[in-house]
Design goal:
The complex is a heterodimer. By secondary structure, chain A is α/β, with parallel strands linked by helices. Chain A contains 11 helices and 14 strands.
Chain lengths: ~300, ~240
């Protein structure tokens, strides 16, 4: 259980995190979303005890991060933004060092380091200096040190930023496998990541939580959710507006561009897709493009963070 | 203590897996010898001692020690690895002391690399070995004091260059506090107790006292309390950054 109570952080006059309160139960993968500078990293740094809040509190399984920092930090694994580490060390030496700092020693330490290296498929680079590794491997080293002590809480600041699509997929798989019965907090501004790994999402903007919902509920908020993207080449815009508009008062039509439309809402009778196809057939429009929209998260994101909701 | 020794080892090894150690030791050996033989007139003096060698140490350390200390914390802050270190369940002072000790042992090793000079004077004449031992000790203590000042400055900034310059300047203040020129300048118009405090704070006076062969409790305590004070300030600086 992690609990944030009225968490506030000010740097000078700038309020980076404002009155943020929420709690996270074990078994949750929380996507922490927001535009750059929204306060995601700062919040994570306060949960890990790297920064102290200006006011408010963070409790990790009952341990206050300020007054009982070391107890809280024992339970947390942290991948800071950009996965910094001691790059002049080899992967194995670095992980051995981190394992020692986490209380492993001797045979235990070597066994645990070997396990984690295997788990993140780094056997081939174990003796290489970290500075010579690709971004993807560096990120894995960062993940490896975060999970060394099998922590209850994993805090990953932009774990897939800058990785290629394959590496992104791999990292997401790893996170999913690690997740069960732990608390995982992932910050990102890549929205597909949220639908891929997170069960819950919190969007913060200018230091405040503007939305806190399950990922499904979040996607359902998209204006275009359940709508249709249409391409009708030969039809005139007036004709399209008139015919589709007659489907019912709740049907909205957005003109995207020449011959491209987004139709959403519930028609007076039948389903939107069947009624739209009927219209097209009776009017003799050629359908060039037809797509059922599942609700793009970026639309929700834009709405929420630009204050349109 | 396990944490402290793990960080200490990591830090000490890191000097040697990068070129820093070799460049530093080489420059230290070349400069300290050059100063001794050319400026210090080692041979012309006709005395079998290492006074000309040790006399230059305060000045040499003014720019060599900041070069070691500037990376202690600035580099961690710059690369972001400080986020790893400070989110580990360790006490802050352990990290501060461990890093300092690694740097101190490292400068000690560089200093130990000058032993051929000792052999030289021992071969050429009959030096007072007690004086030489205490001078080495004094030199190492002085390096420790500078290093602790540097640790604090390095904790305050992520720029190694700023850490270097500020450390050099602060160390210079502590050296100059006991320099006759400076003392004479103040002599005319400040009360005697200020003068005493100034020269009491001077690195130079304490160092010179030790190189005369007298390791007094007072001089030893001076350097050790400088170390303790500046390391304590380092901890405060890091704590302040956590809360700022």
């Amino acid at each position: 259980m992690i609990e944030l109570k009225q968490l506030t952080k000010r740097f000078g006059d700038i309020e980076v995190v404002r009155d943020l309160s929420f709690s996270i139960a074990p078994g949750t993968v929380l996507g922490f979303l927001g535009p750059n500078g929204a306060g995601k990293s700062t919040t994570m740094k306060m949960i890990t005890g790297f920064l102290e809040p200006t006011s408010g509190s963070v409790e990790v399984y009952g341990h206050d991060v300020v007054t009982n920092r070391r107890a809280a930090q024992t339970l947390v694994g942290y991948l800071p933004e950009g996965a910094p580490c001691y790059e002049d060390m080899s992967v194995k030496r670095f992980l051995s060092f981190m394992a020692e700092m986490r209380g492993f020693s001797g045979v235990d330490r070597d066994r645990r380091v070997a396990e984690v290296i295997g788990q993140l498929s780094m056997n081939n680079v174990a003796h290489q200096r970290i500075e010579t590794l690709s971004k993807g491997f560096k990120r894995r080293v960062g993940l490896a040190q975060a999970i060394l002590h099998d922590p209850q809480v994993l805090i990953l600041d932009e774990p897939t930023d800058g990785l290629d699509p394959n590496q992104k997929r791999q990292v997401r798989e790893m996170i999913k496998n690690l997740a069960e019965d732990k608390i995982v907090i992932i910050s990102t501004h890549i929205l597909e990541e949220v639908s891929a790994v997170c069960g819950r999402a919190i969007i913060i903007n200018q230091g405040q939580a503007v939305l806190d919902a399950s990922t499904e509920a979040l996607m359902a908020r998209a204006a275009a959710y359940g709508g249709l993207s249409l391409g009708l080449a030969q039809a005139s815009q007036e004709a399209v507006m008139a015919r589709l508009g007659s489907l019912g008062p709740n049907v909205q039509i957005h003109v995207l561009g020449e011959h491209r439309y987004i139709v959403s809402g519930q028609p007076s009778e039948g389903s939107l897709a069947t009624r739209v196809i009927e219209c097209a057939q009776t009017a003799g429009w050629a359908i060039e493009h037809f797509e059922q929209l599942t609700g793009a998260l970026d639309a929700v994101f834009a709405d929420v963070t630009e204050g349109r909701v | 203590m396990a944490n402290l020794s793990a960080i200490f080892k990591r830090e000490l090894v890191s000097y040697f897996i990068t070129p820093i150690a070799y460049v530093f030791i080489l420059v230290f050996l070349v400069l300290s010898s050059a100063f001794t033989f050319y400026l210090g007139q080692f041979f012309e003096r006709g005395q079998a001692d290492l006074t000309p060698f040790f006399n230059f140490h305060p000045w040499l350390y003014l720019f060599l020690v900041p070069a070691v200390s500037m990376r202690l914390w600035s580099e961690e802050r710059k690369s972001g690895s400080i986020e790893l270190l400070l989110t580990l369940p360790i006490a802050l002072w352990e990290a501060v002391v461990a890093k300092f000790l690694a740097g101190w042992v490292f400068t000690g090793l560089a200093l130990a690399g000058t032993f051929p000079l000792w052999l030289t004077v021992a071969y050429l004449g009959e030096p007072d070995h007690g004086v030489i031992v205490s001078s080495y000790l004094g030199s190492w203590l002085m390096a420790g004091a500078f290093l602790a000042i540097g640790s604090c400055m390095s904790a305050l900034t992520k720029s190694q260059i700023i850490a270097f310059i500020v450390t050099g300047s602060v160390c210079l203040l502590f050296v100059l506090a006991g320099f006759p020129l400076v003392l004479d300048f103040f002599d005319a118009w400040v009360p005697q107790w200020v003068m005493d405090t100034l020269s009491g704070l001077s690195v130079l006076n304490h160092f010179v006292a030790i190189t005369r062969g007298v390791v007094s409790l007072k001089d030893g305590l001076y350097f050790l309390s400088m170390v303790a004070l500046w390391l304590y300030l380092t901890v405060l600086a890091l704590e302040a950054k956590r809360g700022s």
